[in-house]
Automatic annotation (TrEMBL):
Protein name from the UniProt record: TIGR03943 family protein
Protein species of origin: Streptomyces mirabilis
UniProt cross-references to NCBIfam families, sorted A to Z: TIGR03943 family putative permease subunit
Entry annotated with the keyword Transmembrane helix: yes
Spans through the membrane: 36-55, 78-97
Stretches assigned to the DUF1980 domain: 139-235
UniProt-listed Pfam families: DUF1980_C
UniProt superkingdom: Bacteria
Keywords for this protein: Membrane, Transmembrane, Transmembrane helix
Amino acid sequence: MNRQAQAAVLFLVGAAVLHAGLTDLYLRYVKAGLRPLLLAAGVVLIMAAVATVWYERQGRGETGDGDGHGHVHREPRVAWLLVLPLLALILVSPPSLGSYSAMHAGTALQAPLAYPSLPATDPLPLGVVDYAGRAAYDHGRTLAHRRVQVTGFVALAKDGTPYLVRMALNCCAADAQPVKIGLTGTIPPVLQPDTWLQVTGTYTAKQTKDPVNDGRIPFLDVTAAKPVPTPHDPYDESWNN
């Protein structure tokens, strides 16, 4: 690989990063708040590629050849490994983490620092993390006599217990951890893992322990459920805001 090939690969990687950042593709890799940094990284890579070509031409213009001795130095062949992230960005569009990852990791639910007041909406839309935190650690005091509406994907325990799950994100998909809500009540007779559901129901004091890490998994008493499309951003970032 010579310098011009390096510059071409840098340019293409930068362009691919920019493309991911300008579309929804980046949400498969990192949290929404990192979009500006991702775009900046793409611009820097493209600028580095342009600078590499410019300095290479300047050097050749001064010496008349690659090194002043009639030949061009080439970089080690291992430099072609730079092509791998480019191929990954172009050829692979990974799906968001789903039920398999959720059931092989313990719930990441933690006690909330506070329980903000809730609007009087009926039914009340809540995230999985918000409902689970209030149900598990506040004993449902802010949820009593309220109908809530929660959206997540389906995961099934080994004993068949259905969970509604969202993967909570700190930074990127590599550190995503599940937060789980058990479902009881009027549950659809057939549930497919990774199906996204919008569930309406009420608080119940029922809880269980996650078999992976003994974390708390609260339940929701379901009164209605319907399948919904995968959301624009499948990950939940509310737990670390």
